[in-house]
Amino acid sequence: MTVRVRFAPSPTGYLHVGAARAALYNYLFARQKGGKFLLRIEDTDLARSTDESTRSILEGLAWLGLHPDEEVVFQSSNAGKHRSAAHKLLAEGRAYRDFTPKAEPNDANVKDSIKDRARAAQGVKDMRANPFRELSADESEKRAAAGEPFAIRLKVPKSGATEFDDGVFGRQRREYADTEDLVLLRSDGHPLYNLAVVCDDIEMGITDVIRGQDHLTNTHKQILIYEALGVPPPHFAHLPLILAPGGKKLSKRIHGEIVSLTTYRDAGFLAAAFRNFLALMGWSAGEEKEIYSLDELIEKFSLAGVHRSSAIFNYEPNNPKRWTDDKAIWMNAEYIRTMPLAELLPLVKEELRSAKLWREEYEPDGRALTETVPSTADAGPDERPAGVALDLPEHGSYDWFVYTIDLIRQRFFTLKDFSGQGRAYFSEDFDFDPAAVEKNLKKFPELQQWLPELADRFESVFGEEWYNDLGERVNHPFTETNIEEFVKAFTEEKGTKLGVMMNGARTLLTGVAVGPSMLSVFEVMGLEKTIRRLKSQVAWN
RNA sequence: GACCGGUUCGUCUAGGGGUUAGGACACCGCCCUUUCACGGCGGCAACACGGGUUCAAAUCCCGUACCGGUUACCA
User: For A34-123, where are the E strands, in sequence order?
Assistant: First the structure.
């Protein structure tokens, strides 16, 4: 039988990282088994469901690359079928009308009041105590016909137990006595979750239900419904929950946008990196490997490798450096510095574009950024693209762009860094990090004279261009080797350390204190910008 | 309260009767270096507790503690 799994979120907010992980596991499972991955939006809670939420879920899944194989199912459009299933069970005597007046929902703290009520009952509640359970069919019909409102409840047998083998948690058993006569249909005619899920899963031909552990006890109720309906239940597998630091459930109300998938997209995470991180939250292939491509995840994934214990999603709200799980941040950085440039470049392009830093010259006709480009990070000056080593006019070209990105990506954590920390590479309008100015400039006041002087020297040595008859440049090109020799001599002349000069220059050129080798920075900025920025007094004021 | 689960470094985890309990992130130190959040080397750091079973328990059994889930005419 072909495997068919589904991800079934309710559209009552953004896509939660835990839900995203459930979607991912479903997807991996389906792909590995050659099955289908389906999406069903459980929008039966009219009061809380929103279209915006549905869009956000769809967006999030698309970002992660989890595309459903069939048309999206909206649960609300199946309400009629759910209703008739309930009535069928009623007609067969497997369910009954409950004329108990509906209790008023006590607002915000429903969960707490339920818990309190249960605690007060001391756990000795008789689940079969409903007086309408044994009401005669005639009487029941009569009252219904008279217009008295009623809910339909499943008639759970008095003795026995539901059992199933969970793909993660193993054999599960629950006495009927512990399961109430659950409501299938509300008195206003709306089907309830457990009925809707079962009906839809049957209708969609779901073979394996992989979902959060919070549904583990629901499963027993659902099996009861399958049995009443006379349909064999699918396989079930429940996933451990993702907790916040301190061991509490990761929730929107308490933990805010940290739990939303879109937060990560918007913060400059790579989908591949976050997917990789998510896959490892609660699953392991049992090997010492951390970086997995999607294909590898599909190949290696197994329910047996899913843990039974919940994982903690670590983060520190007030620490900008650790605003989310540090392993997630590390993994994103790892992807940024090691992934093929052809995959990274288009993402950087998008980032620069949205920061208004993108220039069409970086991707001229016939040179798509998606074409395979070898990393030049370890290449010597002679092996680099021509446009890089020769300063203008190639400066700002495709080759310059590719080389620059490859250079600066080594120390970046997110795509945002390309437009933030890396802004000075693409724009004249960049800020100076006060800490960098303090540490690298103000601490050495002489630099205010020296650096502009260095600029003048640069100009006289590298500025004029002479060419021979063949059109080859014969004077000093502004390249690492030449710059190094020159700056060293200049530093010696001033009687200071090379580091002082270099770091001062770094701050003026890039606005920050960290980055690649300063020689590369000079080269990549080009002579013109280097001179202008070394002379600028903006940072000094 | 009841039912169901869980508990290996701070975090993610490997290991499922005999291991110096392994890796990764984070952290610390050293090296490289013009800086650095790159890289290299090294370090710190864990089997919740108590009983059993066994020659031998992180690993199997029981109990306790703690944590989580569920206990709706929410999903």
Answer: 36-41, 73-74, 95-98
User: Measured in angstroms, what separates residue A16's CA from nucleotide B64's C1'?
Assistant: 36
CA distance A439 to A506: 11
In this prediction the ipTM stands at: 0.94
State pLDDT tens for residues A23-74: 999 999 999 999 999 999 999 877 788 899 999 999 999 999 999 999 999 9
Q: Give, in order, the Cα–Cα distances in Å from A42 to each of A54, A192, A197, A530.
A: 10, 11, 8, 58
DSSP-assigned states of every residue in A207-261: -EEEEEGGGHHHHHHHHHHHHHHT----EEEEEPPEE-TTS-B--HHHHGGGGBH
Q: How far is the CA of A168 from the C1' of B19 (A)?
A: 27
User: Does A327 contact strand B, using a CB cutoff of 7 Å?
Assistant: yes
pLDDT in tens, A154-210: 999 988 999 999 999 999 999 999 999 999 999 999 999 999 999 999 999 999 999
Q: Record the tokens describing residue A8, joined without a space.
A: 């079934």
Whether residue A503 contacts residue A509, with contact meaning beta carbons closer than 8 Å, is answered with no
Annotated active-site residue in A81, A125, A252, A327? A252
Does the predicted TM-score (pTM) go above 0.90? yes
Give strand B nucleotides closer than 7 A to any protein Cβ: 1-8, 10-15, 22-27, 33-38, 67-75
Rg of chain A over all Cα atoms, to the nearest angstrom? 32
Structure tokens at A13: 């907010």
A368 pLDDT above the threshold of 90: no
What are the residues whose beta carbons fall under 8 Å from the beta carbon of A158, sequence distance 6 or more? A128, A176, A177
Q: At A491, is the secondary structure helix, strand, or coil?
A: helix
CA-CA distance, A266 to A231, in Å (whole number)?
A: 44
In chain A, how many H helices and how many E strands?
A: 21, 12
